[in-house]
Amino acid sequence: MSNSYGRFAEVYDALMTDIPYATYVEWVKEHAPAANNQNLLDIGCGTGVMAVEFAKAGYNVSGLDLSEEMLMIASERCYEENVNVFFVCQSMDELDGFNDLDVVTIPIDSLNYVPEQRAVEQTFTHVYEALKTGGHLFFDVHSLYKMDEIFMDSPFTYDDGDITYLWDTEPGEAAHSVKHDMLFYVVTADGTYERFEEQHYQRTYAIETYMTMLQQAGFTNITVTADFTDEAPAIDSERIFFHCVK
């Protein structure tokens, strides 16, 4: 699994302000309350926004990400927020060194950055092995509808005065995959603009395929919802949520 984030780490938080992180944290707390200093691993933790919130909620938190740039920002955030989170730079499909976990999260479509189905399967297997009996896995992914329809409506643009981007998409080689090409202009300290480009690749699968992969890893108690609600997915749902218990 390659590192999909480079300079993007510097602008990530500004572009994610519409994500209801608090709702995500409450979803996890509802089903796996932070009691007795439970061990939680936040996979694809990015800049540490949710890791910090989980730590504040009472979990004993570790964060894992493949991007060193993201983890540097996450560490700074934890220092500023005065919380302790142990961070590891590692690919999720090679998860190693964790055991007796009570909770694992793979939030905000992080799993969609794993390019090969075999690597997704390995991720689920490693997570299952790292969880205690009765432990919880929470993750979300882009739906087929979002990948095949919404993402194909590019170009997308953004301009808040400090960050401007032009975002183009095209179908990837695999089914239900997308190549994202993003051109950024970011205001620097002296008032000039710095230009950089990012290319990301994401892939998703049908709900039934995810269910099969999870069951093959050993999970049998699986609940599927959509779009930050308790409702079952519909044909036009954009984000699919899975809650699995070992």
From TrEMBL:
It comes from the Bacteria. Pfam families: Methyltransf_25 (PF13649). One of its GO terms (molecular function) is methyltransferase activity. PANTHER family: TRANS-ACONITATE 2-METHYLTRANSFERASE, TRANS-ACONITATE 2-METHYLTRANSFERASE-RELATED. The keyword Methyltransferase applies. Gene3D superfamilies: S-adenosyl-L-methionine-dependent methyltransferases, Vaccinia Virus protein VP39. SUPFAM superfamilies: S-adenosyl-L-methionine-dependent methyltransferases (SSF53335). Residues 41-135 form the Methyltransferase domain. Keywords: Methyltransferase, Transferase. One of its GO terms (biological process) is methylation. This is Methyltransferase. The keyword Methyltransferase applies.
